[in-house]
């Protein structure tokens, strides 16, 4: 069962539908009490503002729930804003985030490009992570964001994208991972990536 | 690098996808979700649905067909037509739309853009902008003016000034339709699209006038558009999206293949 964290994120239902269509059972988690042992993997979706999202996660107790689950080894996939929240801090509202990965989330400052970075752009597979299984290298995914993840450890950069500068578009490790783009809106390879998370991520003992 | 987008526009009337001939005589061409799915498989980068029921008949927006689109289409889609309030934004986004377009309502009350952007973010606020050129005595274009109500009402507003004001308020993208080019199949208003692309810092979707592959190439190269809207070119079976993209790719335009 795939637990999807429900904190009012705009793309929650498209993520939910995509996962359900792949044939996985899903459960919405709006508070820690919604959890039961059938939930083995978690997805943190997200569209919107980092400060607002963290406030909701903190007030609802979902931050503590996520921290507890991650410490137990439950695999977690963050999508878009949900990915940015995996890092330690975000410049968007100067907010402390979940801190599962070391690094921060600065704002794009590229004079030659329009902000937000919106549309289809290529993702280069940096390390052969299982999220990229059966996805050709440099496949396009759909992005919408004005801030970007900046992990401190190079090993946490799983995929890279060029938008006036190279930035980390896929980050994480075997257990906690995040994608800056919207797999649920990126056609068949986006759906493939979601399937890869559900299929290949394993509970870390 | 960011790709140039090809965006099919689908007119919707009473929950059905329709084709208009000169803005009249709608004929049903299928189900909005089925058609969207077909275009997605064919390589569309994004879809725009124009709900003509709401805007023409002044009815409330129907959302059942939007839910069906959201269930079947795995690329982003916008819904435009008849949106008047933040409550309309909420209903359409909840139904599954990724972006919501406003046109006349934003002209009547520009604050709507700010209100929607503050709650839902600029990325889902699209400004629909209908433009008509104003000529001097020598038949040279001196500026473009904003029209509303599907091109029936003249506002007297300058297109560039309105686009700048709207993006400052909260529009994250602009679909610019040149009324005098729409349906003529003799090319986009490249001059206007170029002007807007240079004057505002949000993506510009060029709309109105595409009839040939060269027109799309031109609006990307000379017009500096971020995306090109296509409608009759694909609805009538003249071209497929695959053919459009192959052509552009061969012309070294950065499209997603």
TrEMBL record, chain A:
One of its GO terms (biological process) is L-histidine biosynthetic process. The active site is at residues 80, 182, 184. Residues 4-197 form the Glutamine amidotransferase domain. It holds the Pfam family GATase. Its EC number is 4.3.2.10, 3.5.1.2. The keyword Thylakoid does not apply. Keywords: Amino-acid biosynthesis, Cytoplasm, Glutamine amidotransferase, Histidine biosynthesis, Hydrolase, Lyase, Transferase. One of its GO terms (molecular function) is lyase activity. InterPro entries: Class_I_gatase-like, GATASE, Imidazole-glycPsynth_HisH. Signal peptide: none annotated. It is found in: Cytoplasm. Its main location: cytoplasm. One of its GO terms (cellular component) is cytoplasm. PROSITE patterns: GATASE_TYPE_1 (PS51273). The keyword Lyase applies. Pathway: Amino-acid biosynthesis; L-histidine biosynthesis; L-histidine from 5-phospho-alpha-D-ribose 1-diphosphate: step 5/9. It catalyses: L-glutamine + H2O = L-glutamate + NH4(+); 5-[(5-phospho-1-deoxy-D-ribulos-1-ylimino)methylamino]-1-(5-phospho-beta-D-ribosyl)imidazole-4-carboxamide + L-glutamine = D-erythro-1-(imidazol-4-yl)glycerol 3-phosphate + 5-amino-1-(5-phospho-beta-D-ribosyl)imidazole-4-carboxamide + L-glutamate + H(+). NCBIfam families: IMP_synth_hisH. IGPS catalyzes the conversion of PRFAR and glutamine to IGP, AICAR and glutamate. The HisH subunit catalyzes the hydrolysis of glutamine to glutamate and ammonia as part of the synthesis of IGP and AICAR. The resulting ammonia molecule is channeled to the active site of HisF. Heterodimer of HisH and HisF. This is Imidazole glycerol phosphate synthase subunit HisH. The lineage of its organism: Bacteria, Bacillati, Bacillota, Bacilli, Bacillales. The gene is hisH.
From TrEMBL, chain B:
GO terms for biological process: L-histidine biosynthetic process. Pathway: Amino-acid biosynthesis; L-histidine biosynthesis; L-histidine from 5-phospho-alpha-D-ribose 1-diphosphate: step 5/9. CDD domains: HisF. GO terms for molecular function: imidazoleglycerol-phosphate synthase activity; lyase activity. It is an enzyme of class 4 (lyase). It catalyses: 5-[(5-phospho-1-deoxy-D-ribulos-1-ylimino)methylamino]-1-(5-phospho-beta-D-ribosyl)imidazole-4-carboxamide + L-glutamine = D-erythro-1-(imidazol-4-yl)glycerol 3-phosphate + 5-amino-1-(5-phospho-beta-D-ribosyl)imidazole-4-carboxamide + L-glutamate + H(+). One of its GO terms (cellular component) is cytoplasm. Its EC number is 4.3.2.10. The active site is at 11, 130. The keyword Ion transport does not apply. It is found in: Cytoplasm. Pfam families: His_biosynth (PF00977). Keywords: Amino-acid biosynthesis, Cytoplasm, Histidine biosynthesis, Lyase. InterPro entries: Aldolase_TIM, His_biosynth, HisF, IGPS_HisA/HisF, RibuloseP-bd_barrel. IGPS catalyzes the conversion of PRFAR and glutamine to IGP, AICAR and glutamate. The HisF subunit catalyzes the cyclization activity that produces IGP and AICAR from PRFAR using the ammonia provided by the HisH subunit. NCBIfam families: hisF. Belongs to the HisA/HisF family. HAMAP family: HisF. Heterodimer of HisH and HisF. This is Imidazole glycerol phosphate synthase subunit HisF. It comes from Psychrobacillus insolitus. The lineage of its organism: Bacteria, Bacillati, Bacillota, Bacilli, Bacillales. The gene is hisF.
């Amino acid at each position: 069962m795939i637990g999807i964290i429900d904190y009012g994120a705009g793309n929650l239902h498209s993520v939910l539908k995509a996962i359900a269509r792949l044939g996985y059972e899903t459960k919405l988690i709006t508070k820690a009490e919604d959890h039961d042992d059938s939930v083995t993997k978690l997805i943190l979706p997200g569209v919107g503002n980092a400060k607002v999202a963290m406030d909701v996660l903190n007030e609802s107790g979902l931050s503590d729930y996520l921290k507890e689950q991650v410490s137990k080894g439950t695999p977690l996939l963050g999508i878009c804003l949900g990915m940015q929240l995996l890092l330690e801090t975000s410049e968007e509202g100067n907010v402390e985030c979940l801190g599962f990965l070391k690094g921060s989330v600065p704002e794009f400052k590229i004079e030659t490009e329009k902000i937000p970075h919106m549309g289809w752009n290529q993702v280069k597979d940096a390390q052969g992570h299982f999220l990229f299984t059966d996805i050709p290298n440099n496949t396009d995914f759909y992005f919408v964001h004005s801030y970007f993840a900046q992990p401190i450890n190079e090993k946490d950069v799983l995929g890279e994208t060029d938008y006036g500068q190279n930035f980390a578009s896929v980050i994480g490790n075997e257990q906690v991972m995040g994608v800056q783009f919207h797999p649920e809106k990126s056609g068949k390879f986006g759906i493939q990536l979601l399937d890869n998370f559900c299929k290949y991520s394993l509970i870390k003992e | 690098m960011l790709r140039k987008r090809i965006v099919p526009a689908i007119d919707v009337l009473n929950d059905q996808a329709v084709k208009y001939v000169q803005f009249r005589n709608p004929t049903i061409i299928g189900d909005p979700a089925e058609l969207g799915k077909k275009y997605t498989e064919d390589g569309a980068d994004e879809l725009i649905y124009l709900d003509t029921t709401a805007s023409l008949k002044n009815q409330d927006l129907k959302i059942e067909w939007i839910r069906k689109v959201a269930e079947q289409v795995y690329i982003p889609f916008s819904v435009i037509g008849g949106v008047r309030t933040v409550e309309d934004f909420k209903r359409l986004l909840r139904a599954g739309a990724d972006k919501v377009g406003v046109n006349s309502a934003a002209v009547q009350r520009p604050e709507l853009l700010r209100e929607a952007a503050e709650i839902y973010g600029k990325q889902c606020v699209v400004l629909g902008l209908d433009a008509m050129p104003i000529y001097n005595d020598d038949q040279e274009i001196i500026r473009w003016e904003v029209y509303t109500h599907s091109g029936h009402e003249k506002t007297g507003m300058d297109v560039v000034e309105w686009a700048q004001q709207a993006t400052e308020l909260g529009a994250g993208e602009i679909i610019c339709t040149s009324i005098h080019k729409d349906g003529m199949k003799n090319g986009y208003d490249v001059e206007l699209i170029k002007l807007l692309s240079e004057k505002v810092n949000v993506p510009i979707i060029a709309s109105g006038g595409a009839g040939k592959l060269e027109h799309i190439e031109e609006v990307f190269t000379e017009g500096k558009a971020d995306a090109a809207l296509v409608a009759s070119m694909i609805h009538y079976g003249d071209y497929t999206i695959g053919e459009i993209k192959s052509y552009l790719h061969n012309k070294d335009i950065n499209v997603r293949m």
